[in-house]
Automatic annotation (TrEMBL):
Pfam families, A to Z: AdoHcyase, AdoHcyase_NAD
GO BP annotation list: one-carbon metabolic process; S-adenosylmethionine biosynthetic process; S-adenosylmethionine cycle
Residues holding substrate: 50, 121, 146, 176, 180
Family: Belongs to the adenosylhomocysteinase family.
Keywords, ordered alphabetically: Cytoplasm, Hydrolase, NAD, One-carbon metabolism
Additional detail: SAH is a product of SAM methyltransferases and is known to be a feedback inhibitor of these enzymes. As a result of this inhibition, organisms have evolved efficient enzymes to metabolize SAH via different pathways. The pathway found in methanogens differs from the canonical pathway, it uses the deamination of S-adenosyl-L-homocysteine to form S-inosyl-L-homocysteine for the regeneration of SAM from S-adenosyl-L-homocysteine.
Gene: ahcY
NCBIfam families (alphabetical): ahcY, PRK05476.2-3
EC number: 3.13.1.9
Entry-linked PANTHER family: ADENOSYLHOMOCYSTEINASE
Name of the featured protein: S-inosyl-L-homocysteine hydrolase
UniProt-recorded Gene Ontology molecular function terms: adenosylhomocysteinase activity; trialkylsulfonium hydrolase activity
Cofactor note: Binds 1 NAD(+) per subunit.
Pathway assignment: Amino-acid biosynthesis; S-adenosyl-L-methionine biosynthesis
Length: 414
């Protein structure tokens, strides 16, 4: 179920380009081809269907797995990539521009594989399995989740004793969170905004909602292009960090009249609301780079507007009764994937290496794990970092025997 199989050749070329910039995943693929550690695994992968994801899927298949692929966002699927994967004989249920019904139908179609491992980017597959297919949950070895939003949902399920199988929070691996979230989101969010609007950051006031790793990355890149950055944060330690990083910190009510561009990166609901829209200046732009399109209260904006126009691709103009115009980008969906290519392959190399090795861990250890949310085993996280350093031609310092002894002894004194 893809848009057009004739796009497969173009997709293959783009997949190969990304592969050349994903050396860690390539190394793991070679290992998987030799050892076939995923034989017997049936994997449903509800992920952004991009060139980087295609290389992850190829790695899992090389390891012996059967894989069904579906999109984790209606606007993030790259149709040529979906076509290329389908042309290889994989089960692919994804096309760009799905409506809500089609989106969930694609996930349900992928579940016909009767998977025993799930890969998620937002926990939608896990949610459907738990709500509609408890018989599938009973056979699951485990799953992986790659977003902050999804991990929050899954930890809530685990706390309520509602989680029916173990899940590894790939999002929280240091080689994912610190690099993918910060450098990947930082760069790709800028790319999406500029692709949609040709926005000049220099001299503008940019309001960054959330100062987790994604917010840090975007704030850093916006500042680097000359923007005056305001950070909105609910957590006092992160707010303090933002202030010491050189940003203004204030509540949204104070920032709303000042911003030229507002970007949400929180994982929470209704961050930008009616009371904020009422204070924004004429021609302010609002965009979201969190996983779901709930961070901006779009229904409230629709009710406030006297007129709504699609003025160009990925830009919707809302005219308010007082004459002000507010611009919503990409329907409030992930701006970096809806209007651009998403994260560069160099950072997704680490994220998907964590995914691949975590899947292997689940296949080998899943039956012994409790129904909980687990961190990526530290040995996997470290191995990904070591492989990435090696691919960059970099080496770490080594401890001497004396230093090793000192760090593990209390008897050597100071």
């Amino acid at each position: 179920m893809v848009k057009d199989l004739a796009l497969a050749e173009a997709g293959e070329k783009r997949i190969e380009w990304a592969r050349r910039h994903m050396p860690v995943l390539d190394r793991i693929k070679e290992e998987f081809e030799r050892e076939k550690p995923l034989k017997g695994a049936r994997i449903v992968a509800c992920l952004h269907v991009t060139v980087e994801t295609a290389n992850l899927i190829t790695t899992l298949v090389a390891g012996g797995a059967e894989v069904a692929v579906t999109g984790s966002n209606p606007l993030s699927t790259q149709d040529e990539v979906a076509a290329a994967l389908a042309a290889r004989g994989l089960f692919v249920y994804a096309f760009r521009g799905e409506n809500e019904t089609e989106y969930y139908d694609c996930i349900k179609k992928a579940l016909e594989l009767k998977p025993n491992v799930s890969l998620d980017d937002g926990a939608d597959t896990i949610a459907i399995i738990h709500k509609e297919h408890p018989e599938l949950a009973a056979q699951m070895l485990g799953g992986c989740e790659e977003t902050t939003t999804g991990v929050v949902r899954l930890r809530a399920m685990a706390e309520d004793k509602a989680l029916l199988y173990p899940v590894i929070a790939v999002n929280d691996a240091e080689t994912k969170m610190m690099f993918d979230n910060r450098y990947g989101t930082g760069q790709s969010t800028l790319h999406g905004i500029m692709q949609a609007t040709n926005f000049l950051f220099a001299g503008k006031t940019v309001v960054v909602c959330g100062y987790g790793w994604c917010g840090r990355g975007f704030a850093m890149r916006a500042k680097g292009l000359g923007a005056n950055v305001i950070v909105i944060e609910i957590e006092p330690r992160k707010a303090l960090e933002a202030a010491m990083d050189g940003y203004r910190v204030m509540p949204l009510g104070q920032a709303a009249p000042l911003g030229d561009l507002f970007v949400t990166l929180t994982g929470n609901i209704n961050v930008l609301r009616k009371e904020h829209f009422a204070l924004m200046k004429d021609q302010a732009i609002v965009a979201n780079s969190g996983h779901f399109n709930v961070e901006i209260d779009i229904p409230a904006l629709e009710k406030m507007a006297g007129e709504k126009n699609e003025i160009q691709n990925n830009v919707t103009e809302y005219k308010l009764p007082d004459g002000r115009r507010l611009y919503l980008l990409a329907e409030g969906r992930l701006i970096n994937l809806a209007a651009a290519y998403g994260h560069p392959p160099e950072v997704m190399d680490m994220s998907f290496a964590n995914q691949a090795l975590s899947v292997r861990y689940i296949v080998e250890q899943g039956r012994s794990l409790k129904k909980s949310v687990y961190s990526v085993p530290v040995e996997i996280d470290r191995r990904v970092a070591e492989l990435k350093l090696a691919s960059m031609g970099l080496e770490t310092e080594k401890l001497t025997a004396e230093q090793e002894k000192y760090l593990h002894s209390w008897q050597m004194g100071t």
